[in-house]
Amino acid sequence: MTTGIKSFFIDGPAGRLEALLNQGRPDASHAALVCHPHPLHGGTMHNKVVFHAMKSLHAFGFPVLRFNFRGAGLSEGLHDQGKGEVEDVGAALDWLDAEYHLPILFCGFSFGAATGLRAACPDPRVAGIISLGTPVSAEDRVYSYHFLGDCAKPKLFLSGGRDQFGHEDALKKLFKIPSEPKELVLIPGADHFFAGHLDKMQAAIHAWAQRFFAPEREAR
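Request: output the structure for the sequence above.
Response:
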C-alpha cells in the first residue's frame, strides 16, 4: 500500500481549501472523503473522530481525502452556516473524481455529515454514505433530512447511544426517512464524540464497508 500523506490545497468555490490525502493502493476499488465537524466549535480535518474514520477506510487500501471547510485552518473564505459548505464538499468530490476516477465513499461527522449528505446523496459518483454522530439539534441549530428519502445508496448511520446532539428517539425517527439500503448502529454508552469508544466506531465502519464495498479484501 502507498502509505504517504500528501498536504495540498483544493480549488474551492470560496478560495483554496486546505487538504490532506492518505494515499491508497494502486489497485484501490474506491476512494473516500471524510468531512469534519462544526468549524465554529473547533472542528477541523484533524478531529479524532475524523482521523479514526479515515483510518478505517484507508485500511482497505482506499485513498482518503480530508479537507478543512472554508474559514477553517488554512482554508480561505468565511463560514457560511452550512450553505456554501455544501459546495466545498462538491469541490472535494470533484478533486477525488478527477484524480482517481473511482466510485467514492462519503463519510461525514456531525456538521460534516449534515452538510456533506446534501452534496453526496444526489451525486452519482458517490457509491455509499457514512453519517457519524448525525446531528438532529445542537444549541440553536435544527437539522432537516427530508432529502434523504430519495437517497437509494447504501447508508450507515452510526452514533453514540448517549449522543447529546442526536438522542436515540430522534435518530430512530430520522432513520425512517431514508430509503433502503440503510443501517442504524448505536454504540451503547458513547457520546457525540465517541469518547472511549472510537475502537467500536471503527469496527462498525469496517464491518459495513467490508459487506458492501470490499467483500473480497480484508482490511489490514
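The mean pLDDT is 94.
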